[in-house]
Amino acid sequence: MSATKFLAGFIVGGAIGAIAGILLAPKSGEETRKLIADTTKDVMNRADATVKEIQSKADDVVSDMQRKGDEIRDKLQNLLNQQKPAAVEE
User: Fold this and answer.
1) In contact, 15 and 45? CB cutoff 8 Å
2) In 3D, which of 41, 50, 1 has the Cα closest to residue 19?
3) pLDDT of 47 higher than 90
C-alpha cells in the first residue's frame, strides 16, 4: 500500500468518524451544522497542510537526485576525458 493511499484513507476515515460523532451527539440542528462546518474546515486545512508537506519533501528528493545525477555525470565525463589522452598515446 502506498503512503499516499494510506494517508488519504486515514484522512477520509477521520472525517467520517468525526461527522458520525457529531451527528449522533445530542445537540440542536443549528449547533450540529456549525460543528460540522467547523470540523470540515479543520479537516480540509489539515489535509492541505499534509499535501503541502508531502510535496515539499518530494521536491527535496527530486532536487537531491538531480544533484547526485549531475555529480555522477561530471565524474564520468572526467573519467572519459582522462581516457582520451591515453588512447591517443597508444
Assistant:
1) no
2) 41
3) no
In the block, cell 582520451 appears at: 84
Q: How far apart are alpha carbons 61 and 28 in whole angstroms?
A: 49
Q: Is the pTM of this model over 0.70?
A: no
Distance (Å, whole) CA 75 – CA 63: 18
Q: Say if CB 46 and CB 11 are below 8 A apart.
A: yes
Residue 39's CB is within 10 A of a number of other CB atoms, namely: 16
Furthest-apart CA atoms within the chain: distance in Å: 93
| pLDDT tens digit sequence for 66-85 | 999 999 999 999 988 888 76
